[in-house]
Amino acid sequence: MRLLFPLLTICLLCAPAAAKGGRPARMTMAQIADEVLVAFQAKDDVKLKALAHKPSPDSWIVAEELIRRGEIDAGIAYARAGLRPATKALEGYITSRRGVPNPEAGHAELLKAQAALAMKLVDNGLAALPSPRAATDTVTGVRLAHMEAELHRVVSRHAESAPAYERSGLGAEAIGWRHWAGLMFVYAGRFYAMDKQRQKADACFERGLEHCKGIEFTYGAAAALMSMAEAARADHRVLEAIGYYERALPMLSSTKQHASVAMTLQNLGIAYDDVGNFRRAVECNERALPLWSKLGNLGEWAGVHINMGSAQTNLGNYTSAIRWYEKGIKAARAARKPQYEANGLLNIAGTYWHIGNLPRALSYTEQALEKMKAAGHPGSLARAMAGLGVLRFDLGDHEGGLRMLQSALVQAELLDDPNLEAGTLSNLARAHFAQGDFVKAAEMYERARVIAEKLADAPLQTTCLSAVGRCLVHQGKPQEGVPLLEQAAREARRLRYPEALVSSLTSLVRVHLAAGKPERAMFLAREARTVVERLMAGLGVHDAPGARGRFTGLFTGGALAAARIGDTAEALTFLETGRAGALLDLLGGRRALRWSDVPDDLRRLESAARLRETEARAAYQAAQKRRDLRASQAAARALDAAQVRVGEVMAKILAKVGRRTSALLAPRAATVEEIQKLLKPADALILWSVGDGVSLAIVLTPKTSKVLELGPADEIMKAVAAVNASDVDIDPSKAIATVKKLIVKPLALPKSVKRVLISPESTLSYLPYALVFDQAVALTPSGTTQVQLARDGGHRGDRVLALGDPDYGSVDAAAREVYVRGGDLSPLPATRPEAKAVGDTVLLGEKASETGLRSALTERERWRAVHFACHGFVNEERPRLSSLALSLSEGQDGFLTMQEIMRMDIPADLATLSACDTGHGAIVKGEGLMGLTRAFMYAGAPRVLCSLWKVDDEATGALMVKFYELWNPKAPAKGAAATKGAKRMGAATALQKAQAYVRAKPKWEHPYYWAGWVLWGLPD
Length: 1020
Known about the structure:
It is built from 45 helices and 16 strands. By secondary structure, the chain is an alpha/beta fold. The strands form four sheets. The chain has a six-stranded mixed sheet, sandwiched between helices.
């Protein structure tokens, strides 16, 4: 929802301008002609030259007036006096008109049409034009053709405007009037582009640009390039658009057209934003800002701020984004720009939606709606109403949300906007589906499909067809739904539309599993997985949170099909495919990584390659839409080539970046054999899946592998949710016994297993495993992650860096709004002695800041541990906003976020998050627990120790001291005797022993005091 600024406007009408600001009014055509005659008769060459070089009216129009009066010789003298590239052919044209009968032909009609245009009486103006249309071999004939185009333009008849502009340009070209020809071809290109006639548009643009450059008409050439850029953007050729903008920018700068330069910079910024180059988008807006300020244009200055907010949101800098939006909204209000203010309100609402603050998003959307009503933009109003409906529905106001969506649908129907109508119907369908009203959802999807058919929008048709099939299956009508799903799959293959194909195949997998046909389900699941693996190679177009979540049904369905045919390896592959790349999806795709890990040159190559792929797919689908077999075949080859190019670029990136980043950008599921190799003789690794109503467990030991189908997923999740060990007044032993019966006993682990590695899912991620297993336990996001950590975790550091008792006295207000929803941060004085007890280097108070941390990390090549004793905030809906609250420092907002952690290098064997709830994060179906733990693993710490609930300060201090004594025993002080038998324990075993130590104290016997601590990552 960014502001899009208009194209450059070039005045083509030559009516006189009123005097303004004390400046004299421009002379009319007739006045110039009179002055030319006086100068010619007086043989005043200086005066004649001055008149001939006046920029307005156009010399060709003045010459035509002289011809109409019969003053051919005066016209020739005038042409010679003003000789320049634009008038090179003028003398020849005037000479050719000597003795031509009826030199006033068309003049009266032109005046009538101009008068009608001024009053917007389009029919009167068209009636005034000669019939049949005048020939374009004179200046007047050229202008009549232009007048016809203008009259059609007023009423948005693009299909009629474009050829009329082109006819005017061709006539001007024929007589040598290149200035006019250039402008007319540019305008013809614009309107051909609006009428979706790309080839004609491109031809006209090129012709117009050639004329403008040929006569050194820099501003016209810039206008041509800008028009080409906008047409390219409308046609999804964003890279071409950027090239045109970049070419136009120095031309405009040389003409000192500051307003045009500012607009170009803003449009260029939006284009860079479109291709994901957000840093460049910010730079463009930063350059535009002082230009609008210098011009005193408060409205456009507000627009820059709103666009900057959009770029900062895309960069994940939400605190900064909110500040930019607030300034932009305030300026738009002062400038009385209700549309800009409404856009800003919608944008800030979108940012609050991104950070999961739906009430604030709802409030800003409601304000935007009121502004749009005042601004009188019905299309924007309908879209805002639809957004408001979705927000209300998401906040639990189902009745209000549906009512608002229905109102938006009525608006879309009144506007006769089929695209908006189809989109609103889809939102309504999703809302009804979420409520379990599959009959109503099917009806809405079918209405959207009919509209898509009329629009010849094959991808939307396919999506809706698949959705109707799903609704019928949910209604218990598989005999009706399956044929639709199969048809949708065939269409998706034909269109090369991967999202719809995966969706349809996943639904078919579920149907065949329910029908007891696991082999057929397995066949379809494998096809869908192949498609998903391509999409997951950096996510491609799926560069948003939750993209992989849409494939959860495939991963769980494929794993279940494999389990039912007894194929452990395939079951593992399906589960690991979902979990292996979860962190990438969590961050919203590759964006967080591009800024630090991928070199700029490769980043540009990758962006270009992926955009080419998008453009090639659009061209292929357009050819399919036209049912043009030859064009479809050519477009298919181009799409294949574009996809190959993406693969080549990704290979270059993976070869350049480190192994850790490589595994994240192009995740590959580990095999059974690879995971078994990392297990020690007494280890077992368990992967749990509780999706689609059925629970599975894959159990691997160094020598064996098996997949088990456990009980109903709802029963297991209910039992796990009943475990409440965080309340000292509740005895969780009975609930724990139930959980053991449901998920531990069926595993039948051999007695030789002394240590368990667990890859949990859903609510199983929050289970205190110290209460469930007798063995030492370590958690892992996936088997694939564990293999990667084992490869990189062989180093050993020394000494502990500890941060404690941060200074929360001056927390940034905007940051607090983002990370703690406006709440306060209470001091943590009890963390000071804890940090001192475990740390060798200790950062306390104001030194416990992000700046202090970054500086201290560089003091050693590798640390044994980095210990954080501070507030922790976990955003389960938006994990990227999970953070540790540190002291405020210059240039920072005081919150060390997940994304910031991932961009850091944390060379430590262990990261200890001695803060409340740091073990929480997003429960992403099929992928397990995501959060700060994953960020620290990516940043270089192969082990993370964290808590599942609010912890007791005193018990935590005791547990931490004991854990470090066992895991990282310090050398005895000088003169002291060495502790007998002191040696380093593995992290999982040290945690188990430390928990037992705390548990042995009568006052801390309850699990609340010790069972909430969990270790993620390598157990050794």
